């Protein structure tokens, strides 16, 4: 026994020394994974030069096609990382390598800007209904050619989509076409001109390339009669009244016809004295005329319109261009709107409204209109005014919580399976596991419950997945017929093999019950049955006493002498289970085991304390 104790003591200290040595040689190295991407679109940058300071051998490496490079077996500590590539602005950061882990760091590079993002130059017409121009890329790294279609009813002019204005226009000059005759009825015509417009943004001018006369109605030029000698009886006829007018068809201004008034005189003569009565009046065309507008107005389409003062439009105008002014890359800032001072001048002679004016930008300013917030692009988050990239992960943590539908209590040992791999839920009803990026169909099951399926998606951002699954118990149907069988009753007696007294066998009455009811919720609801048979079965030993007297060789006899105390000794022994052997404890071995356990626990705690960041 002493030798065994000494051996156990030596073995305990030997194991403790092995554990101490293994723990003292805890992992002191880690790995560093650097991923280089473009700041504007998060695309990986290949063949970028990544240098990590404080590495004695091979401190610089180039990224692969995924923009990644791995530095292995680095001593735990802080390292400076510098990244560079032609065409990009270099960038650097500081990262700590943690023991036993691969630390991932993402560094983005901005392309070197050659222009201002959104800037447009070289406007031109790609065709009659398309405009083309060069626009600076969003990252400012170069130019891209853009071709846009003009909307319906618009054409390209000097690189801008303008409303199509070319066509025939009325000049409001009219004439009476008699087709060579000097008087009579003819066709009233209006002069039209074809205007070929040229527009620069909203400012347009035109050149008249053709003219024509178009019919607009009917007209009449009366014939004039002259006589050398007018007898008294022939004085009746049309006479000028001396009144004239310029007929411009009820318009306010423009070209028209000069007309004079005539009256028809019906003469009556007595001798040489004649008098007349005017029976009709008319106006006859005698030439052409025009009517102009008063000062400060001009004739437009037959009406007098005021001449527009382009200088009245001078002032500050909003360009609707807004920006958020911040000190760093992201966060709260001041919302500014761009305004420009426009100096207007006429481009039509004379201008009738603002469309006949153009402007020249004299000054530009930014005006505050409130607050704003600049967010980081997709894949980044704002921290202290700096856009930091969300760490991408190739795996996702999955937690599936399984609970009972009726009680809402967690279900232990429920199976969560996918692709042939299964996990069991713990006492808290949660199954924890990890999956690679992709889509998975999970199957959750437990004996006695209805199974369920669900789909989870693991994205490349390593999103944690938490899902709750509620299982419903399977409804069971209990068959009362399964309870059919023999049951004990309260009736029993002691069978002494025909003797009046003495040792015998106890017999208990049983009855066969035939239960009715094929399907109930539980066996407690099975209460209806019929007894179809009886039987007596042995139920151990017994002793049959005499009601009067005492038992002698199986017969009851009366007592003739004084009552004596008779002690009956049974001729059989009750069965006794063998007792279990007592467990002997080697207290020295137990003490050594406890010391080893305390030592091992303290070392584990110390290791965890040193590697919290692992």
Question: What descriptive keywords fit this protein?
Answer:
mainly beta; 4-stranded antiparallel beta sheet; 5 domains; 37 strands; 614 residues; Immunoglobulin-like
Treating each run of at least 4 consecutive H or I residues as one helix, how many helices? Answer: 2
Major sheet: size, sense and barrel closure? 4 strands, antiparallel
Spatial gap, N to C terminus: 46 Å
What Rg do the Cα atoms give? 58 Å
Largest sheet: spatial strand order? 3-2-5-6
**Which residue ranges are poorly predicted, with pLDDT under 50 across at least 5 consecutive positions?**
20-27, 226-230, 562-584
Mean of residue pLDDT?
81
Structural class: mainly beta
Overall structural domain count: 5
Helix content: under 10%
Q: What is the approximate shape?
A: elongated
Proportion of residues in β-strands? over 45%
How is this fold's topology laid out?
Elements: H1 2-24, E1 29-38, E2 49-52, E3 60-62, E4 68-75, E5 77-84, E6 91-97, E7 102-109, E8 120-127, E9 130-136, E10 143-149, E11 154-157, E12 160-163, E13 167-177, E14 184-200, E15 203-221, E16 237-247, E17 254-270, E18 273-291, E19 297-300, E20 303-306, E21 315-325, E22 331-346, E23 357-374, E24 380-383, E25 386-389, E26 395-404, E27 415-418, E28 421-424, E29 430-436, E30 438-445, E31 452-458, E32 465-471, E33 485-495, E34 502-515, E35 529-544, E36 550-552, E37 555-557, H2 587-610
Parallel strand pairs: 1-7, 26-32
Antiparallel strand pairs: 1-4, 2-3, 2-5, 5-6, 8-9, 9-10, 11-12, 13-14, 14-15, 16-17, 17-18, 19-20, 21-22, 22-23, 24-25, 26-29, 27-28, 27-30, 30-31, 33-34, 34-35, 36-37
């Amino acid at each position: 026994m002493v030798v065994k104790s000494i051996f156990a003591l030596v073995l305990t200290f030997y194991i403790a020394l092995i554990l101490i040595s293994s723990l003292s040689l805890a992992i002191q190295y880690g790995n560093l994974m650097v991923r280089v991407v473009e700041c504007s679109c998060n695309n990986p940058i290949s063949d970028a030069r990544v240098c990590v300071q404080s590495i004695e051998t091979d401190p610089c490496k180039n990224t692969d096609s995924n923009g990644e490079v791995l530095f292995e077996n680095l001593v735990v500590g802080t390292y400076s990382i510098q990244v560079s590539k032609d065409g990009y602005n270099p960038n650097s950061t500081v990262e700590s390598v943690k023991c036993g882990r691969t630390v991932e760091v993402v560094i983005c590079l901005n392309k070197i800007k050659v222009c201002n993002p959104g800037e447009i130059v070289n406007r031109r017409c790609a065709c009659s209904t398309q405009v083309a121009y060069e626009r600076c890329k969003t990252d400012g790294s170069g130019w891209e050619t853009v071709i846009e279609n003009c909307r319906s009813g618009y054409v390209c002019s000097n690189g801008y989509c303008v409303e199509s204005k070319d066509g025939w226009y009325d000049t409001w000059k009219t004439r009476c076409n008699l087709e060579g005759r000097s008087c009579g009825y003819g066709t009233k015509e209006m002069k039209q001109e074809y205007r070929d417009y040229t527009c620069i943004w909203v400012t347009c001018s035109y050149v008249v390339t053709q003219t024509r006369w178009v019919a607009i109605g009917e007209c009449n030029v009366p014939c004039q009669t002259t006589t050398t000698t007018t007898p008294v009886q022939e004085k009746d006829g049309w006479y000028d009244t001396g009144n004239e007018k310029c007929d411009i068809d009820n318009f306010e201004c423009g070209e028209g016809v000069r007309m004079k008034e005539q009256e028809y005189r019906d003469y009556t003569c007595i001798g040489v004295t004649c008098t007349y009565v005017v029976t009709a009046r008319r106006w006859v065309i005698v030439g052409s005329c025009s009517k102009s507008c008063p000062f400060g107005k001009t004739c437009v389409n037959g009406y007098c319109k005021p001449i527009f003062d382009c200088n009245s439009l001078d002032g500050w105008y909003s360009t609707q261009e807004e920006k958020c002014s911040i000190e760093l890359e992201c966060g709260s800032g001041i919302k500014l709107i761009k305004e420009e001072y426009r100096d207007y001048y006429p481009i039509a002679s004379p201008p009738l409204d603002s469309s006949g004016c153009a402007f020249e930008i004299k000054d530009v300013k930014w005006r505050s209109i409130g607050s704003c917030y600049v967010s980081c692009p997709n894949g980044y988050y704002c921290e202290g005014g700096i856009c930091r990239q969300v760490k991408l992960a190739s795996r996702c943590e999955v937690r599936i919580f399984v609970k009972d539908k009726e009680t809402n209590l967690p279900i232990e040992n429920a199976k969560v399976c996918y692709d042939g791999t299964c996990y069991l839920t713990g006492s808290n009803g949660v199954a924890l596991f990890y999956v690679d990026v992709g889509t998975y169909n999970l199957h959750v099951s437990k004996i006695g419950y209805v199974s369920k399926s669900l789909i989870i998606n693991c994205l490349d951002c390593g999103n944690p997945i938490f899902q709750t699954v509620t299982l419903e118990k399977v409804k069971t149907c209990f068959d009362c017929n399964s309870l059919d069988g023999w049951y004990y009753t309260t009736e029993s007696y002691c069978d002494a093999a025909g003797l009046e007294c003495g040792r015998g066998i106890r017999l208990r009455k049983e009855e066969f019950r035939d239960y009715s009811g094929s399907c109930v919720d539980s066996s407690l609801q099975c209460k209806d049955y019929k007894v179809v048979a009886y039987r007596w079965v042995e139920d151990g030993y017994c002793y049959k006493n005499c009601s009067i007297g005492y038992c002698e060789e199986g017969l009851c006899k009366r007592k003739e002498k004084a009552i004596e105390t008779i002690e009956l000794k049974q001729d059989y022994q009750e069965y006794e289970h063998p007792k279990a052997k007592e467990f002997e404890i080697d207290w020295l071995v137990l003490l050594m085991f406890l010391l080893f356990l305390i030592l091992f626990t303290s070392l584990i705690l110390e290791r965890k304390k040193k590697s919290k960041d692992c």
